[in-house]
Amino acid sequence: MQVSTYLKDTYREQVDTQVIAVGSREGSPWVAVADCLFHPQGGGQPADRGWLDGSEVVPVRDHESGLIVARAPEGAGLPVFTEGQPVKARIDLEARKTHAALHTAGHLIEAAGRTQGWTCAGNIHFPGQARIEFTADRPDARLADPRGREELTAALRETVAAAIAEDLPVSADHDEQGQRIVRLGALHAAPCGGTHVRSLADLAEVAMPTLKVKKGRIRVSYTAAHRPR
């Protein structure tokens, strides 16, 4: 049985664990460990950079087995691992913190958009590409006007800044269907399998250029970083 350790503690940098399965897919060997410290790419969040016993690996969700498996980066090899072998798993914690900050900031911007009567239609939380896309639940003439778009963006910034200043807690629980729900205090709740910061005061440098409207969607691009601690 594999445990999603990356969901239990965003800031866990390494763990002693053991190999529970090995295999190969399309000629590429993989290994799975009991305590999975690695977040695979998904839900708009990039994969962690990780190592097993010092060898760099890339985590991938294997839909056939249901496991998160570790493969070698493209062009590299993977050492031979055996089931039951003790191993040390480690992640690039600074990269993880960046991903967690961007993902949490994305939830916060989604919450701010909801206050404008918008519905989230898509998201991506990759560094340098982060954005939330919305559809408007009702017509708003400001979206067609440059000054109106800046006015709306300013309102989003204000909502985001106020929540960070209030230092709302970030938590996760499961609903009756077993779905993981991430909450920003009482402001926002959404199904999510990503990593997040401890509270909104961990967010720094959250910035949003003026929103854009493309093909009927409201696109809010953003940047964010993890506050040094």
From TrEMBL:
GO terms for molecular function: hydrolase activity. InterPro entries: Alanyl-tRNA_Editing_Enzymes, Thr/Ala-tRNA-synth_IIc_edit, Transl_B-barrel_sf. It comes from the Bacteria. Keywords: Hydrolase. PANTHER family: ALANYL-TRNA EDITING PROTEIN, THREONYL AND ALANYL TRNA SYNTHETASE SECOND ADDITIONAL DOMAIN-CONTAINING PROTEIN. This is Metal-dependent hydrolase. It comes from Streptomyces lutosisoli.
